[in-house]
Design brief:
With 471 residues, the chain is an alpha+beta fold. It has helices spanning 56-62, 92-104, 193-209, 245-261, 313-324, 328-341, 345-351, 355-362, 364-373, 383-391, 400-410, 423-436, 442-452, 459-470; strands at residues 9-17, 38-42, 67-72, 108-109, 115-119, 129-143, 146-157, 161-165, 169-173, 180-186, 220-227, 234-237, 269-273, 279-284, 291-293. The termini are far apart. The strands form 2 sheets. Strands 1, 4, 5, 6, 7, 10, 11, 12, 13, 14 and 15 form an 11-stranded mixed sheet that branches. Helix 3 (193-209) packs antiparallel against helix 4 (245-261), helix 9 (364-373) crosses helix 11 (400-410) and helix 12 packs across helix 14 (459-470). Helix content is 34%, strand content 21%. The protein folds into 3 domains: 17-190 and 258-293, no CATH class; 313-418, no CATH class; 423-470. The radius of gyration is 29 Å and the shape is elongated.
Length: 471
C-alpha cells in the first residue's frame, strides 16, 4: 500500500496503569474478579461541558437509556468509587511518576495542574465523568532517528471493568475504577502502520523503565487514530498486542477506501479492533464539549525540584554492553529480568567475572531445571554461593544445572559432590583419551571427555587442551 499517496496520517494514545494506591482514595489498585460483596445500580445522563454543549458521543450513549449494575468489594472499593463521597487529595506518587514520564518525553510541564471532568455516560464511570488532568505538552520521542511529537501527557483515573453487556443493561466491576492511569497522546506524525507500532513499543519501553507501572494483560492499552484523503478521522480501540496494529490499520484503510469508491459518507467514529483485524462501530468521535472543570480537586503547582533522571531500558542495555562486555542478547535478557523479577544484575556484574553466566543463572538455567527435571527453584537466594564457587573455579559452570537439580531433591548445595577436576588431572585424562582414540574427530573426542566428567569441567578449557594434544 502506498501510504504517502493516500495521505495516511496516524497518531497513538497510550494508557498505562500505575502501581500503588488509587488516584483519589486509599484503596489498593488490585483488580478483583471473585464474587462481589455488594451491588448497586445507576442510570446516567449526559450533561453539557464547559462550552455549554452536550458532547456528541455522550449524547449517543445517553439515548440508549441503559441501566448500569456495579459490583463492589468491601476491602478494595470505597464511597469515592461509588460516587457517594468527594475525591481525596491526588496520589503524590502517581503525580510524581507522571511528571517524570512527561520530562522523559521532552514535554513542557504546565504551570498549574487543573483536574477536569470528562463526560462519560457509557457506564464505565459511576459518576458519569472521568477525572483527568493535563501534566505536560509539546514533547517528542525519537524513533529510528525521527522525532514524533507528543502532544499531551495526562494523569487520570481508570474506568470500571466491563463484566457483562446486554441490550438493556451493562454490569461493571468497580475494583478497577480509580486506579492511576497515564494517558500519552502523540501528534499524527506516523506515516505508516509499522511506524505506529514502533512508536508504541518505544513509549512502552520508557514507561516500563520507571519501575512504577503495572505489568500484565490489560495494564497498558493503545488507541490508534488514523485518517486518509477523503476519509474521516477514526479512533480504533481494543488492540490485543502491538503486532496487530499494522494489520488492523490496513483493514480500516481498505474499509474507508471502499466507502469512498461507493461515494458514501464516512463519519468520524470510535471503532473497536476485532480478533479478525477488522473494526466495528462503537460510538461517534467525542470532542471538546465533554470537558468541564473538576471543582472537588484543588489546583496543583507542580514541584520539579530534586527530580532524578531515569535511565531507560534501552540506555541500560547499551551501558551493560559497553561496561560489562555483554552481547546484545544477554544485555536485553538482563534488563528484561531486572524489570520482571526485580533482580539487580549490576551488583553481581561488579563482583563476579563471567557476566554471561550470571545472566544464564537467572534466566535460562531455571527454565532448563523445570524442563529436564520438573524442578522449580528460585535462584535468587542461592546465586551468591553458586557464583562465588564458579568464580574461584571450585566448581565448573557446566555442573550448575546438576548441582541445582540435586538441591531441588535434597535442599542442600552439595559442592563437594560436584567439585571441579584439577587442571593436571584433566590434562592427563585428555592426553590418554586422545591416544586411545586416534583418528576420531575433535567433536567426538569432546563428547567423550564431557561425558566422562559429567560436565564438571569447563568446555573452553577442554577444547584448548584437546587442540594442544591433537597437534
Amino acid at each position: 500500500m502506498n501510504y504517502e499517496k493516500i495521505g495516511f496520517k496516524c497518531g497513538i494514545e497510550i494508557h498505562q496503569q500505575l502501581e500503588g494506591k488509587k488516584l483519589f482514595c486509599n484503596c489498593p489498585s488490585e483488580i478483583r474478579k471473585d464474587k462481589p460483596d455488594f451491588k448497586f445500580e445507576r442510570r446516567l445522563r449526559a450533561s453539557a461541558g464547559e462550552s455549554g454543549n452536550v458532547d456528541i458521543a455522550a449524547s449517543h450513549e445517553h439515548k440508549k437509556n441503559k441501566l448500569f449494575i456495579y459490583n463492589g468489594y468491601e476491602d478494595s472499593t470505597c464511597l469515592v468509587e461509588m460516587d457517594e463521597e468527594p475525591p481525596s487529595f491526588v496520589n503524590k506518587n502517581s503525580l510524581k511518576t507522571t511528571l517524570q514520564i512527561a520530562k522523559m518525553l521532552n514535554c513542557r510541564i504546565v504551570d498549574k495542574i487543573q483536574f477536569m471532568r470528562k463526560t462519560v455516560v457509557d457506564g464505565s464511570n459511576t459518576s458519569g465523568f472521568q477525572r483527568t488532568a493535563l501534566i505536560g505538552r509539546n514533547g517528542f520521542v525519537e524513533v529510528n532517528g525521527k522525532k514524533i511529537g507528543v502532544s499531551t501527557v495526562c494523569l487520570e483515573e481508570e474506568a470500571c471493568q466491563l463484566v457483562k453487556r446486554t441490550k438493556n443493561h451493562d454490569t461493571y466491576n468497580i475494583s478497577r475504577l480509580g486506579i492511576s492511569l497515564i494517558e500519552i497522546a502523540t501528534d499524527p506524525d506516523m506515516k505508516t502502520p509499522e511506524e505506529c507500532r514502533e512508536v508504541a513499543a518505544k513509549i512502552g519501553m520508557i514507561l516500563r523503565s520507571t519501575g512504577t507501572c503495572k505489568r500484565g494483560i490489560g495494564s497498558i492499552r493503545q488507541d490508534v487514530n488514523i485518517s486518509i484523503k477523503k476519509g474521516a478521522r477514526t479512533e480504533i480501540k481494543g488492540f490485543q498486542d502491538l503486532k496487530s496494529i499494522p494489520k488492523v490499520v490496513d483493514k480500516e484503510i481498505k474499509r474507508q477506501q471502499n466507502l469512498i469508491k461507493k461515494k458514501k459518507k464516512i463519519n468520524k467514529e470510535v471503532r473497536k479492533a476485532e480478533p479478525d483485524f477488522t473494526t466495528s462501530f462503537l460510538r461517534p468521535l467525542p470532542g471538546a464539549s465533554r470537558m468541564y472543570p473538576e471543582t472537588d480537586v484543588p489546583t496543583i503547582i507542580p514541584e520539579m525540584k530534586n527530580f532524578k533522571a531515569i535511565e531507560t531500558h534501552d540506555e541500560k542495555i547499551t551501558r551493560y554492553k559497553k561496561s560489562y562486555c555483554l552481547n546484545d542478547d544477554f544485555a536485553k535478557l538482563a534488563v528484561k529480568y531486572e524489570c520482571k523479577e526485580g533482580i539487580n544484575f549490576e551488583n553481581h556484574f561488579k563482583k563476579y567475572k563471567d557476566k554471561n553466566f550470571i545472566v544464564e543463572l537467572f534466566t535460562s538455567i531455571p527454565k532448563e531445571l523445570k524442563k529436564r527435571y520438573g524442578i522449580i527453584i528460585d535462584v535468587k537466594n542461592l546465586a551468591e554461593k553458586v557464583l562465588s564457587k564458579v568464580d574461584t573455579c571450585e566448581i565448573s559452570k557446566g555442573v550448575v544445572v546438576e548441582l541445582l537439580a540435586d538441591y531441588g531433591k535434597t535442599k542442600k548445595l552439595n559442592f563437594g559432590k560436584f567439585k571441579a577436576v584439577s587442571s593436571n588431572k584433566l590434562e592427563e585424562e585428555i592426553k590418554n583419551i586422545v591416544e586411545k582414540n586416534k583418528g576420531v574427530s575433535i567433536g567426538a573426542l569432546m563428547g567423550i571427555i564431557m561425558n566422562q566428567f559429567r560436565g564438571n569441567v569447563d568446555g573452553k578449557k577442554v577444547m584448548t587442551l584437546l587442540k594442544k594434544h591433537l597437534k
